[in-house]
Amino acid sequence: MTPRFGKTPPAAPEPGPAAIQDTALKPLDDETAGPRVPMLGKMALDSILAELVAAMQECRRLYLSFVPPSQGYPKPASRQFSLSQDRLHRGLLAKVYATISKQELRELADWAAFQCQRRQAGLPHEMPDLRFLFLGPAGTGKTYVARLLSELLFASGVLKHGHLVEVDGFDLTSREPRDAARLMKDKIRQAIGGTLLIDCSGALMSAGESPDGIAIRALRENLVAHAGRFAVVLADRSDRLPYQLGRQPRLAQLFQRTWQFGTYRAGELGQIFQCCCDRSRYRVTRPAQIKLLLGLHWQLRQDADRFGYGHGVLRVFERAVHRLASRIAGLSPLTKDLLTTFHDSDIVIDGVPAQVFKDLADPRRSFSISCPGCAAVTLVGPDSLGIRVECRRCHHRFTSAWGEPVG
User: With 90 as the cut, is the pLDDT of residue 114 above it?
Assistant: First the structure.
C-alpha cells in the first residue's frame, strides 16, 4: 500500500543525536535550552488542533456568508462554535485515522456552501449529496470520521444539528424483518438533521434480503423522501460491501461517493497510542516510545493487513496500564510520576522477537519525520523524538513526536 505521508526516504548515513542539525528541521531555541528530559509527556497537539479549529471556523464563515442578515446565526448552545477538550481529542483521532485527504473534506464543505449561496440568490441549485460509502476493516476510524464529517456539515450549514446516530447491520439482521424495518425507521427519524451510520451494512444485504426486503426498502424510501435532511454512511469491509451493494441496484445508484480506509504505518499507530495516553494523563518515556515504534514496525513488515489497524495498538495501551499497575504495586510512596509514567518494560507486543528491542538507546537508529505543513520527509536520530522543531522549508512548527523507523 502506498504510504499516505510521502515516500520513505532512502538509506542515509547513520545519524547521531545531533543529526537533526543537518536536516530540514531545526530545534526551537526554547526547547533546547538546558538538558532535555527523555519524556514525551502530553503530546504537543497545538498545530493539529489549530488546523481542526481553523477548518471549523472557515466553515462557520462560509455559513454566515450566505445566511440572510435578518436570520442571523443560531444562538442555542448546541450551535456554538466552541469545542470541548473531549471533542478536540475526537477530532484529532479522526485526523489520525482518516485516509481521506483534508482536501476532500474542504471541497465538500465549499461545494455545500456554494449550493446554499446559489439557493439564497434564487439561482438553480443542486441538493447536496449526503450519501457515503466508507470502506475499510474495523479499527480504521470509520466511525470517528463519520462523526467529524457530520460536525463539518453542521458547521457548513448543511445539517441542522450534526449529531451521529449509529446502527449495526448485524443487529438488524438478527431481528424479524418487520422489527428490522421498524428499527431502521426509528434510527432514520433520530438522524434527521444529523448523520446515520450503518456499520457492517454489508451484513444487512447479505442475510437473505431480497432487493425488495422491507428493511432495505425502508432505507431506500427514506433516503429519497428526506433527501438533504440527513447524511447516510454505509460502512463495512471493502471485500464485502461493494459486492453486496451491487445486488441492490436501486440502492446502489444512490451512493456515488466512496472513501477508502486503509492500514496505518507505525508512526500513525503511535499517535493513536499517544492520544490514549493524553486522555488518561499518562506519559511515555523515550525508550518506551522507541520500543513501541520498533515493535509496530516489525509487525507491519510481517503482515500489514493483520496488524495495521487501531484496535491492536489500543490493546497494547490497555496491557501497558496493567503492567504499570503490577510494576508499582507495593511501592511507597506512590508519586504522580509513578502513577502516570510508562517505561519500556510496560510495553508488550506479542510475537515480536526480543532482538528487535535490543539496545533501545542506540543513537545510530534513525526515524523519518514528515512535516505537517509541506509533507517534507526528514531523517532524525532518536534523541530528536519528542522535541519542538521548525521546518526550514515552510517554517511550520510542530513536535517530532512519532516517526517511522528506518531500516
Answer: no
Cell of 113: 456552501
Between 354 and 158, residue with greater pLDDT: 354
Residues 246 and 343 placed together within one structural domain of the fold: no
Grid coordinates in use for 225? 423522501
Whether 255 is covered by a domain: the verdict is yes
pLDDT exceeds cutoff 90 at 321:
yes
Instruction: Assign 3-state DSSP to the chain and report helix, strand, coil percentages, each to 5.
Output: 50, 15, 40
Count of alpha carbons within 13 angstroms of residue 190, beta-carbon side: 13
Give the whole-angstrom CA distance, residue 182 versus residue 107. Answer: 36
Strands 164-168 and 195-199: parallel
Pairing type for strands 131-135 and 257-260 reads parallel
Same domain for 217 and 277?
no
Helix (H) or strand (E) holding 145: helix 142-155
Q: Which residues, other chains included, contact 123 with Cβ-Cβ below 8 Å and sequence gap of 6+?
A: none
Grid cell locating 390: 521548525
Helix axes 142-155, 102-120, angle to 10 degrees: 30
CB burial readout 121-149, b (16+ within 10 A) else e: eeeeeeebbbbbbbbbbebbbbbbbbbbb
Tell me, yes or no, whether 217 and 286 share the same domain: no
pLDDT at 20 over 80: no
pLDDT(69) > 80 = no
Using a CB cutoff of 8 Å and minimum separation of 24, what contacts does 358-365 make? Answer: 360/287, 360/290, 360/291, 360/294, 361/287, 363/16, 363/17, 364/14, 364/15, 364/16, 365/290, 365/405, 365/407
Q: Please give the residue that has the higher pLDDT: either 320 or 157.
A: 320
Rounded to whole angstroms, the Cα distance separating 27 from 95 reads: 25
What CA–CA distances, in Å, run from 332 to 19, 283, 321, 335? 41, 20, 19, 8
Beta bridge partners of 405: 367
Q: For residue 296, what are the CA distances in angstroms to 53, 279, 289, 404?
A: 31, 21, 11, 10
Domain that includes residue 309, residue range? 19-44+264-405
pLDDT at res. 234: 92
Task: Retrieve residue 226's grid coordinates.
Answer: 428526506
Which of 80, 5, 90, 92 has its CA nearest to residue 51? 92
**CA–CA gap between residue 149 and residue 106 (Å, rounded):** 10
